Structures are given as structure tokens and as C-alpha cells.
Amino acid sequence: MEILLNEKELKEVLHNALCNGLGWISGYGLSVKISKEDYASAKDSLKDEDFNVGSINIGICVEDVYMKHLEDGNALEFYDSEQEEYVGFTLEQAKRNLKDEYVTKHIMDMLNENDDAITADCILQTALYGEVIFG
């Protein structure tokens, strides 16, 4: 079964996967690589007031900045220390890669708020590589 995510769902899935999976995939030797300039540009374009829940400001987190970087048409790159190479994805690449039948269950779990770090890990790996290659 192929899953077709709309833009809002795609961004929600990727944001949640980044929030819950970055620590997990670091165990594979993968780490986000973004220049200080690109990070600052993405962060500066986010409006602090958009991160209010009622009268409480929850603040901007690193995953919000990474998503803004992607939304601006850039690739989110990771350094693979084991292969000594860079891998990454754009929103369009992630959308294509996340159509993979294997990851459908994980995406549905995330959309239904029944996810964990393993769910996020599988989604991030699929966004990066088109499949789960670790674990």
C-alpha cells in the first residue's frame, strides 16, 4: 500500500521524526550538518509569536529551524561518519521516498500519535535513503 501525504502531513511527519529520531540516528554516525549562516537565516525568518500556545511562548526549537530550512527549498544534510559522506533530502525527495510500502505503517503510527523513537528512526532513514538500512 502506498501512502500519499499532503504537504501539511508531510511536514508534520518530518517535524515529529526530527524531534524524536535525531538522537536515535546519531547512533548510526549520522549528524545534521547546516552552516551557521543557513541556520541563522532559517531561524531569523521564524516568527516567535507563531510559537505561542495560549499565553505561553513555547519557543523555537532546532527542529523548527531544520523544517524552515527544508521549507525554503534547501536540503537537510547529514554527515555519515561511517561512510565519510554527506546524505540528505529535500521536502520533494522525502515525499517521494516516504511512499515506500515498508514505511507506511510507521507513518500511520505517527499520524495517529502512536509513535516512538523507532518510528521516527525508520521515517528519517527512509527520507534519507529511500529505505531502512540500519537496524
What is the rounded Rg?
A: 15 Å
- Structural classification: alpha+beta
The biggest sheet, with number of strands, parallel, antiparallel or mixed sense and barrel status, is: 3 strands, antiparallel
SSE topology string = HEHEEHEEHHH
Number of helices: 6
Total beta strands:
5
Q: Give the end-to-end Cα distance, rounded to a whole number of Å.
A: 22 Å
Strand order of the largest sheet: 1-4-5
Task: Record keyword descriptors for this entry.
135 residues, two-stranded antiparallel ribbon, alpha+beta, three-stranded antiparallel β-sheet, globular
Outline the structure in words.
The chain has six helices and five strands. By secondary structure, the protein is an alpha+beta fold. The chain has one domain. It has a three-stranded antiparallel sheet. The chain has a two-stranded antiparallel ribbon with strand order 2-3. A hairpin with a 2-residue loop joins strand 2 and strand 3. Helix 1 packs across helix 3, helix 2 packs across helix 3 and helix 5 crosses helix 6. The radius of gyration is 15 Å and the shape is globular.
